[in-house]
Write a structure and sequence with these properties.
The protein is mainly alpha-helical. It is 65% helix and 2% strand. The chain has a two-stranded antiparallel ribbon with strand order 1-2. α1 packs across α2. The longest helix is centred in the middle third of the chain and has 54 residues. The protein is elongated and about 125 Å long. The protein starts with 20 loop residues before the first strand and ends with a helix.
Length: 192
């Protein structure tokens, strides 16, 4: 039996394969006789005496020592490439193709992350430009209406300023609260 098997391995052994068993009436019977009786049973040729003899064997059989040894070694490896031992089992051309496939996959992942980040930055920039445009239009409207109705100009200006605060400050405050809650949740999960 090897000291450390490379893969999943189950090893079984039975002790004393040709062991003699002493029956109740004092006679010695060997395993070969038991095998002979089982073979006759499978063919359906057992006499009444042989059935009784088999019955005695079966009553004594559980008393025999039987050992089953099992050794299982399980390894796992994760990543874009197979374990180096497995990779080395391939020919040179196949190894190059597998490594190139992993390199191409990594490039694709990086490009997608970069594209997603660029899109997020552009989306934020468009939102800021739209917000500034709406704020300036609101302030200009308030200035133009002020000579005719100071009350209406005040309402438009106030709503415009609250809209600016809601547009630029509130998302940052909410994001800070979310991040703080996520850190607290992680700390509580680590404590458990």
């Amino acid at each position: 039996m090897p000291d450390q098997p490379d893969k999943h391995e189950a090893v079984g052994s039975h002790s004393d394969t040709n062991k003699h068993v002493e029956l109740a009436d004092g006679e010695l019977e060997s395993d070969s006789e038991l095998d002979r009786l089982v073979a006759k049973l499978e063919r359906g040729n057992l006499t009444q005496e042989q059935q009784q003899e088999l019955s005695r064997h079966l009553q004594i059989e559980p008393a025999r020592e039987q050992h089953l040894h099992q050794r299982v070694r399980q390894t796992s490896f994760s990543g874009p490439l197979p374990h180096p031992d497995i990779l080395n089992q391939f020919d040179e051309e196949t190894r190059k193709a597998i490594v190139q496939m992993a390199v191409d996959d990594q490039k694709h992942v990086h490009e997608m992350n970069k594209t997603g980040l660029s899109g997020s930055i552009l989306k934020d920039r468009r939102g800021q430009l739209c917000g500034v445009t709406i704020a300036l239009v609101g302030l200009i409207a308030a200035v133009l209406i002020a000579p005719y109705s100071a009350f209406a100009a005040g309402i438009i200006g106030t709503l415009d300023l609250f809209g600016m605060v809601a547009l630029f400050v509130a998302p940052r405050v909410l994001e800070g609260r979310r991040n703080k809650k996520a850190v607290e949740d992680d700390a509580s999960q680590d404590a458990e």
